[in-house]
Design brief:
Radius of gyration of chain B: 28 Å
CATH topology of one domain in chain B: Penicillin amidase (Acylase) alpha subunit, N-terminal domain
Number of strands of chain A: 0
Largest sheet of chain A: none
Largest sheet of chain B: 11 strands, mixed
Shape of chain B: globular
Number of helices of chain B: 24
Distance between the termini of chain A: 26 Å
Oligomer: heterodimer
Helix content of chain B: 25-40%
Strand content of chain A: under 5%
Strand content of chain B: 15-25%
Number of domains of chain A: 1
Largest interface: A-B, 44 and 41 residues
CATH architecture of one domain in chain B: Orthogonal Bundle
């Protein structure tokens, strides 16, 4: 369990490099690397990647959203035919989670491949 | 199996990554940006969420290469920048930088619109707009203006400094910092240039001086005959007060006799393929009010000046407030993003403002092609080749479209699809195509530094299009107004109808000399004003025609005429005046002709409500709804002969002329419905249209119950029409025929009142905010203040070191 948590944290760190100009899909790369580094099964890799990715994307959005009192999210939600700010936050988190999770899944499968060799 | 699982999961991930990079189609030809780019919180839309409370001490030092000295900027609580520079170029460079910081996308999209480059980023759906703006020669006009400006080195230095400021901001941007619209439309900002400033000038010209009725006037005249046409469409409205009255100043003005030029042969309908199949005769033109009072009419004994330009209301707003301070000037006011200088504002000695002049400065000339290839046309008995301007319109995700536009001596051939007369087309002669004055770009900076009437006159004389009524007032006590612009010299009615383009002698016969442009300084009556009405009475020696306002000006004249002890509040009350002279003229006549006895109880209620109405379009009133419906039905029922003709566009008379008929000419043949055996009069039509209103309200109970504010909501749309980025207001009164000229999408875009007391004091408001970012608290923070009819005291600083609660931030710019 601790391993999964640490791995999720690792995904978050790698993904956060996007703040410094690296591509946003580094969250997926983080998921893959974490699965290998922490020797996770595909399922555990997916879960930790998803958790790390979700937390990162949702959290980073929250860092913008809260000081802005939801002003922009409300307007963007209106643009997207009546979505609410929490929809956008959840969607953002979900996209981050999916990236991290699928990265973790791929990493997990790749690792089992190497391990048997 | 393990390989298979790896492959499947890798394929899943790859699909996700692919999907997150694809634009998402929503509706026809519309796309949302790729979800990964847009939603990721590192560079996507979340990064455009500005904190509600500005971070203390934000915007430290900015390096701005090209500056000659240090520039200090104070930002007040409305985020208005107060620029303190050592010289004009530095000030303008920082103006460019800060305007770009707040309004970059607005600047980008406006220049794209004018230059026909919208489709590059918006795709096929804007192709028609791009094509038409190019065929009307807007880009050509901008290029010619810039060529002319290049002959004035100090003007070019200003344009270059402005562009350098904008570009310094753009160059420092990372994709995460792009305005949200760039992210939504998935493209990147481009460098600014002086040509783009010229595009912004053409943008205003397109809004303000492209209106003409040559085609519909010709067809209406041909249908009715000249005499009937002149009776319905007189040149002059005798109820109106012109901007500059005749006080003998034109007596003895000798002008060379002008030759009468022939119209195009009647029945030549070569413009039928106009983008609008029918030219709407819209009596409510984009307009504005301005006035200045001398000290004899104010509380302080010093002049006051007010201006409220009525334009499309958008978010971000068309205006951006700024203060510019240099050793030679200290001025405050509103600027047009993309253009250096202050268009409407004041300094420590003088205030100025503008309204549109509304003269017709565009004519259509018939071209006779020599053959179907349309390479040559008949001119002066010979044959003249066209020149081509090849327009290549980029279209997102598609091959570019190439359009070779034919240019004649007259100008571009805009429309080319006449099926009736395949060898005829019309060329567009538009004043805006003529190169502008070399010093044009310095006009609004000259005003910033002006101190008196002479300075003002010297500054505005380089201003040509779109012609504006420049009002002014000084602290020393002068007031004045000048109908400033370049105007074609035309014989009586020349260019009112389609013209014959086969002889160059049919051209404009020069321009009205600058010294003969009408102006009025320090009149005895103690005020000057304009509301887009006629510039001069018929005794002015030069002929012109145009689309002039007939009601607002009369109301403003009445109020100013009785004004004593004017204060900031009484000026505000005038700007917010919802009284309609049009309703005041029409309603008594309409009620007089209405047979109330034959109405049902509901109808009687409506009639009672109208009888009790004070002709004010207050948001909470119901009577304006009834009046508008009744009047519109009545107008349509009267002009059915002209309005139901869909074969070609016809003109219908101005409201004032129509009301005059209701009042004094109730048996006029136009009140008769041609299809019925009876001979209808105004009385019939008034009654019939009242019944039509009652029937409509019975079918639309919601509208029967709603007040004016809900019936005619004010829609402040986003510049790019993005849902959710605009505002809809249902508590705003006003009407285009009232001084508070509020239409659904168009209205007072800036309200300013300046008291030229010892220390100049001003109030102002516009329905928007300084920031163009929908994620900023300063995006629309002034909208509610504006809607409530309130103003801000404008913070007019004397020095950058001023401290105060209003000051929210400071920036310094260094080379």
């Amino acid at each position: 369990m601790l391993k999964i948590l640490l791995s999720g944290f690792f995904v978050l760190l790698v993904g956060a490099s996007a703040w410094f100009g690296l591509p946003w899909w580094f969250t997926a790369l983080g998921g893959g690397l974490a699965s290998m580094l922490f020797r996770l099964s595909p399922l555990a890799g997916f879960l930790s990647g998803f958790a790390g990715g979700y937390l990162l994307w949702w959290g980073a959005a929250m860092l913008e959203h809260v000081p802005n009192a939801g002003l922009l999210a409300t307007r963007v939600g209106d643009m997207l035919k009546g979505l609410k700010p929490w929809h956008l936050l959840a969607l953002t988190g979900f996209l981050g989670g999916l990236l991290g999770g699928l990265g973790g899944l791929v990493g997990g499968h790749a690792r089992t491949l190497f391990q048997k060799k | 199996m393990r390989y298979f699982r790896l492959l499947v999961s890798a394929a899943l991930l790859a699909s996700l990554l692919w999907a997150l990079h694809q634009p998402i189609p929503v509706g026809e030809k519309k796309f949302l940006p790729p979800a990964g780019h847009f939603f990721n919180p590192f560079s996507g839309f979340w990064r455009n969420a500005d904190p509600m409370v500005p971070i203390a001490g934000f915007g430290t030092a900015v390096k701005l290469p090209g500056l000659k000295g240090k520039v200090e900027v104070v930002l007040d609580d409305l985020m208005v920048p107060h620029i303190f520079a050592q010289n004009l170029e530095d000030a303008v460079m920082v103006q460019g930088y800060l305007t770009a910081k707040d309004r970059l996308w607005q600047m980008d999209i406006a220049t794209r619109k004018v230059s026909g480059r919208l489709s590059e980023v918006l795709g096929e759906r804007t192709l028609r707009i791009d094509s038409m703006n190019r065929r009307y020669g807007l880009g050509w006009a901008a290029e010619r203006d810039l060529e002319s400006w290049k002959s004035d080195p100090t003007g070019m230095a200003i344009l270059d400094a402005y562009a350098a400021g904008v570009n310094a901001h753009i160059n420092a941007l990372k994709p995460a910092d792009y305005p949200i619209e760039f992210k939504i439309l998935n493209y990147a900002p481009e460098p600014w240039s002086p040509l783009k400033t010229a595009y912004m000038v053409e943008n205003m010209a397109e809004t303000l001086c492209k209106r003409e009725f040559d085609l519909s006037a010709t067809q209406t005249r041909d249908l009715l005959g000249q005499e009937a046409y002149d009776a319905l469409f007189p040149d002059w409205n005798p109820l109106q007060q012109p901007i500059v009255p005749d006080f003998g100043q034109w007596r003895g003005t000798a002008i060379a006799p002008l030759k009468q030029t022939p119209d195009a042969v009647p029945g030549a309908l070569g413009l039928r393929q106009q983008p609008r199949a029918r030219m709407p005769h819209d009596e409510y033109i984009d307009g504005s009010n301005n006035w200045a009072l001398s000290g004899m009419r104010t509380q302080t004994g010093k002049p006051m000046l007010a201006n409220d330009p009525h334009l499309n209301l958008t978010l971000p707003s068309i205006w951006y407030q700024v203060q510019i301070h240099t050793p030679d000037m200290n001025a405050y006011g509103v600027t047009v993003p993309g253009v250096p200088g202050i268009v409407i504002g004041f300094n420590e000695d003088m205030a100025w403002g503008v309204t549109n002049v509304s003269h017709d400065v565009a004519d259509w000339y018939r071209i006779q092609w020599t053959d179907a290839s349309k390479k040559a046309y008949v001119l002066d008995g010979g044959v003249k080749q066209v020149t081509y301007r090849v327009e290549t319109i980029g279209v997102k995700n598609q091959l570019p479209r190439v359009d070779s536009v034919r240019y004649t001596e007259w100008g571009p051939v805009v429309h080319e699809h006449d099926k009736v007369h395949p060898l005829r087309d019309y060329a567009y002669r538009w004043l805006v195509h003529d190169p502008s004055e070399p010093a044009y770009i310095k006009v609004f900076l000259g005003l910033c530094a002006g101190k008196n009437w002479d300075d003002y006159r010297a500054s505005v004389k380089a201003y040509d299009t779109p012609a504006q009524n420049f009002v002014m007032a000084t602290r020393k006590g002068s007031i004045g107004i000048q109908v400033q612009g370049r105007y074609p010299l035309r014989a009586r009615h020349q260019g009112k109808y389609l013209q014959d383009g086969s002889s160059s002698s049919h051209a404009w016969q020069g321009f009205i000399p600058q010294e003969q442009v009408p102006y009025l300084k320090d009149p005895e009556r103690g005020f000057v004003y304009s509301a887009n009405q006629h510039s001069t009475p018929p005794s002015y020696p030069y002929y012109y025609h145009g689309e002039f306002e007939d009601f607002r000006g009369r109301r403003i004249f009445d109020r100013l005429h009785h004004m004593q002890g004017a204060s900031l509040d009484s000026m505000a009350a005038m700007q917010l005046d919802n009284f309609s002279q049009r309703a005041a003229d029409a309603l008594p006549a309409m009620l007089r002709l209405l047979n109330t006895e034959s109405l049902d109880p509901v109808g009687k209620q409506y009639a009672d409500a109208l009888r009790a109405w004070n002709c004010r379009y207050e948001a909470s009133f119901k009577a304006p709804v009834f009046f508008e419906l009744w009047y519109d039905y009545l107008y349509d029922a009267t002009w059915d002969e002209l309005e139901t003709n869909t074969a070609f566009p016809l003109q219908t008379p101005d409201a004032w002329r129509f009301i005059e008929m209701l009042d004094k000419d109730t048996l006029n043949a136009f009140f008769d419905h041609p299809g019925t055996p009876e001979k209808e009069t105004a009385r019939h039509v008034v009654h019939e249209s009242f019944e039509a209103m009652c029937a409509y309200l019975l079918q639309h109970p919601q509208e029967a119950l709603s007040d004016w504010g809900h019936y005619r909501p004010v829609d402040i749309k986003h510049v790019g029409f993005i849902d959710g980025f605009g505002r809809t207001l249902t508590q705003v009164g006003g009407h285009p025929s009232a001084p508070n000229a509020q239409r659904d999408v168009n209205g007072p875009s800036w309200r300013m009142i300046v008291s030229l007391q010892d220390s100049v004091f001003a109030r102002g408001v516009y329905p928007g905010g300084q920031s163009g970012n929908p994620g900023s608290p300063h995006y629309d923070n002034m909208v509610d203040t504006w809607a409530a009819g309130k103003y801000y005291d404008l913070l007019f600083l004397k020095s950058a070191s001023t401290a105060g609660v209003y000051i929210q931030g400071r920036m310094t710019f260094e080379p």
